[in-house]
UniProtKB/TrEMBL annotation:
Protein name stated in the entry: HEAT repeat protein
Pfam families documented for this protein: HEAT_PBS (PF03130)
Species this protein is from: Actinocorallia aurantiaca
InterPro entries membership: ARM-like, ARM-type_fold, PBS_lyase_HEAT
Amino acid sequence: MPVSSGTVSGMIHEFGGIAWSELSHAYGQADDVPGWLADMASADAKIRGEALSSFVSAVHHQGGVYDSTIASLPFLFALADDPVMPDRASIVGLLVSIGQHALDGEGLGYVDSGHDQCARAFRARSAAFLAYAADNERGVRHRAIEGLGLFVDDADLAVAALRERLLAEDGSAERLVVVAAMATLALRLLEACEPVTLWLKALSHDTTVEPEVRLAALVHAVRVAPGLLDSTTVPTAIGLLREISHPVSGPRPKCACTASKDEQQQDAPPEIVAAFEDLDRWGRLHALTTPLLRTFHEFLDARVSDRTALLAEQLTSPHQGSRHDAIRMARELISTWRGDHSRLIGLLADLVDPDTPDTTAESAETLAALAPLTEPARPALVAYVTAQTPDAWTHPDPRSRRAYQQSVLALATLNDPAALPPLLTALDGDTDAWRAVQASRHLPEAAADLLPRLTRRLYRADLSTEWSDMSTNALISALSRLGDPAAVPVLVHIATTAADHRSCHLTAYALNALASFGSAAAPALPLIHSLTTADDPAVRASAASALWAITTAPAVPVAILTALLESHAQREAAEALGRIGTPAAPAIPLLRTMLTASYDWTRIHAAAAIWDITADPTVLSILLTAWDENPATAVFVLACLTRMGPAAAPALPRLREELARPHRSDSFLHDVSRDESVQHACRTLLASLSSSSVKERLESIMISVKPDGEAV
C-alpha cells in the first residue's frame, strides 16, 4: 500500500487535533515520517519489520502510551484497514497492545500520559475490531479477537460476535483466544458477567469441542465467577490436560545463542548479550496451553497444593513443549511460596536429560536459582555432568553447550566438587568464562585451583573499557568469597589501577574485598592510607573501614567515618562505625540524627550502628518498624537482632509472625536463598531468645525460693 505524504497530512487532525509534532518528534524529522510509514507497508518483510520495530521503540516503548502514540493511531488504523497491506496481523496486534495498555492505565491519574484519551479512541473504533475479527486473513482474526473483549462496550453485541467466532474458527489457537476474550469482556462489563458465566460453564462440559477449549472454559469460568472454584476444579483440569493428545505449538524460534556472527559481534559484554538472550527465551511459548495455564496459576495463587498437583501433571506431560513451559511456572511457585517443594524439585531434576538440551538448560537454570532447596536434584545433575567430559563446556552445538553449562552452574550452587573440572576448563579458555567466574564463589574448598586462574584474569582486566566494572566486580567478589589471602596482591593491584582510572565504584569494591582479609591484607596499607583522603566519599569510607579491619586502631578510621555521616556515603560509614564498636562513640550524635531520616535504610543503618556502639535497646523499635514497612530490610535487621541477643526479646512476636507467613519475604525479588536465610535466622534467634527467657524464669524461681525449699 503506497502511503503518500498527502494521505499522511489528511490524517493529522483525526484524533482531536493532536499535534503532528508529537509523532515527528518521537520518530525523527517530520519529513521522514511519510517514508517511515511507507516502509511499514513495504513488500519487503525485512524493511517492514525494521520500520515496525522503530515505531515500537519510538512511541510504544515498554508498553508506554504517550501523545505520540495517540498521534500515530490514524496511520496505524489506515494500514490495518487496507486489505492489500502486507502483514496486517502485526499492525492489528500492535493496535491491540496499545489499546490494552491504555485501558490498564485508564482512570489511574497518570500525569500527561493520555491513557484516558487513548482508551476513548479505541472504544470509538470498536467497529474496526469487529471487522478485523471477521477478516479473511487468519492472522488478522487471531490478533483482533482479543479486541472484542477490550473495546466493544455493547455487551450483547460483543457476546454474540465472540460466540459466532467460536463456531466459525477451526483452529484451536483462535478458539482459545475467543474464550479468553469472552472472560475479559465479563470482567470489564458487569452486564456481560451472567451470560458469559453460563456460556463458559456449558462450554467446559461440551465434549464435542476439543479438550483445550474445554480447559480454557473451565479456567476462565472460575476467573469470572470465583465461587465456581471447588475441590473438583483442579482434578478436572488435570483430566483435560491428559486428554490433550497433541498440544499445538508454533515452530521453535531460532535459539538466541545461534545468532549469526554479525549479531554476536557487539560491543556489549557477554553478560549483557546473555541477558538479552534470556529475555528472548522468556517470551517464547512451546505449547498452546501455556498462556492459559499461567493464567490459571495466577488465579489459584495461594492454593499451593492445588498448584503443585497441576504442575506435577505439567512437568510429566508426554509433550516436551508442555514440560518445558511448566518449568518457569514451577520456578515462580517455589520462589513465591514457602513450604515443602521437594516433589517439584524432583520433577525438575527428572527433566535433566541429554536428549532434550533446551529443556535441560531451562531446568538446570531454574534449579540453580532455587538453591539451597535443590539438594534432591544433586544426583541427577552429577550424573548429567560427569557423563560428559569437561570439554562439553565448549560444545560446538550452542544448545548442548548451554545445557551443560547450566547444569554445572546448578551443581556449583550446591558446592559440589563435580562442578570443578568444567569450571577450570572454562577459566583456562575463553568460552563463557564469565559464567565460571560467577560460579567460582560457591566452591571455597577449591580455592587452591581457582585462585591462580581468577588472579590471572584480574591482572589482565582492562579498566579503560566501558563495561570493565561488570567483569572485574565478579572477579573481585569471587576472590573475596574464596577467602584465600593469596588474593591480596592482585586486589591491591586492581584497587590501585581503579583509583588511577578514577573508577570510584570499583576502587571502593576492591577496598571492601581487602578488608575481608583482615590483618592478612597488611601489604595494602600504603594504598589504603593514600585513599583515606580520596575525593569520593564512598572510597574514603571503604578505605577507613579497611584501615580498621587490618590494624584495629580506631582513632583515624573513626574520625574519617564520623565526618562521612553527613555525606552520601553515610550508610557505608555507619555500618563501618558499628563494626568498630565502643571506640566509635564520638559518632553517636550524628548517628542519632540519622534516625529521623525519611529513608528506611538510612534509619536502620544508624540504629544498628548505635546498638553496636552503645548497646542502646531503644533502637529496636526503629529496626522492627523498618522491617514491617519494607520486607527487603529483613536480612539486615535480623543480623542486628542476632547481635543484640536477649535485648531483642521484644521481637519475639515479629519473629513468630514471619515464620508463620506462607508467602516468601520480599518475594518480588524471587530470591529463594535470601528468604531461606531469613527463615533460618528467625528460627535460630527464636530458639536462642526462648531458651534465654526460660533460663531467666528458672533463675528467678531459684532466687525466690528459701534454702529449705519454702517459697518466699
